[in-house]
Amino acid sequence: MPTILLFAFVAAAQTQDVARTEWRDGVAKPFRTVTLSASLREMITKIAVEEGDRVTEGQVLVSLEAEKEKVAVERLQLMLDKALFDANAAKRLFEQNVSSKDEMMVKEVEMKRIKAELKIAEAEVAEREIRSPLTGVVVRRFHEPGEAVNEAEPMLQVMDADRLLLLFHLEATQLPLIHLGQELAVRFPEMPAVKAGMAKVNFIDPEVDSRSGLFRVRLLLDNKDGVFRPGLRAQAAFPADDSKPKPSGN
Closest Cα to residue 214, out of 25, 19, 21? Predict the structure, then answer.
């Protein structure tokens, strides 16, 4: 008999735990969205991707006109080869007491100067190759090859939706019930047949809005399969606020 009573008590406690959660509405946002632009005014020679293409971090997406800059790199590389030869020759002559230390130093300084100019020229070439700062999907393409772009003018928009941020606005009375790292069940009402699983609390707004009395909470959801899309309505089972009046009859 005591064993049966124990089971009944555990079942009742579990029922109460379930009853103490409530589904709250929120919205799904991409984990990160970046709009790529150029840092200079130049003509586009190539756009390597289309809208919907998946890209990886560091991949070259847009190439700008860079013929003059590439020629400058080649010229400086030849100059550096000669400067290195001259510097090594001057060092050998100094070690053999054939030339002075000053002559050796002059050659070394010239070699270092050309090396610095080469790094600047290589940076100017790299500046004309626009690389993806993240792994994700191209969602917007603003230009075509042959068009000129100005500084800071948008060219592509890339979105990382492998993880989703689920944004909710909750009453301040729920602050004690939520903590970072907490796992909550989530679902998407427009996709009732697809199980979303669990998401973790990764941000709790330190400030409560004085007018509405609400604060923001974000959950992080793994979406590597790409099943769920940013913009969908999301729901999460948050701990219920026991200070709220309970509906009559419960």
Answer: 25
Q: 42-47 and 148-149 as β-strands: parallel, antiparallel, unpaired? A: antiparallel
Does residue 76 contact residue 117 with C-beta atoms inside 8 Å? yes
Q: List the structure tokens of 92.
A: 């050998």
Query: Residue 46 corresponds to which amino acid?
Result: K
Q: Any idea what DSSP says for residue 247?
A: P
CB-based contacts of 6, cutoff 8 Å, min separation 6: none
- Nearest Cα to Cα of residue 86 among 100, 63, 103, 102: 103
Q: What is the pTM of this model?
A: 0.73
42-45 contacts at long range (C-beta below 8 A, 24 or more positions apart) = 42/128, 42/148, 42/149, 43/146, 43/147, 43/148, 43/149, 44/143, 44/144, 44/145, 44/146, 44/147, 44/148, 44/149, 44/155, 45/145
Report which residue type is found at 112: K
151 compared with 15, residue with greater pLDDT: 151
Name the nearest CA neighbour of 77 among 126, 127, 111.
111
